[in-house]
Write a structure and sequence with these properties.
Length: 122
Amino acid sequence: MIGYVTIGTNDLPRAAKFYDALLGEVGAKRMMENEQFIAWSVRPDKPGLGVTKPFDKKPATVGNGVMVALEAQSAAQVDALHGKALQLGATDDGPPGPRGGGFYAGYFRDLDGNKLNFFFMG
């Protein structure tokens, strides 16, 4: 159902470097970009993640209660991707671990404070 999700940034080159390195770990590549926006996807027919400078030219802010969940292929991959995010400068917002019902996730905030996680169901 979801085609893509965008999150805001106040520093597009910095966000691009972070997401190129992080999302490259799961095979995602830039699928669209301009001077205000960059989007990544594993394949054009799969959902994408974009970062954008706000259209209204006001500073990007973090949405309270907003989170983007990125699917991993295993619990071990969740661990590795969460660690990679932290290595790239993200902050931990909940270490990887089981959350019940076969759900395993690790939470982090990117360089702009946006909340994301990597998760695995299994």
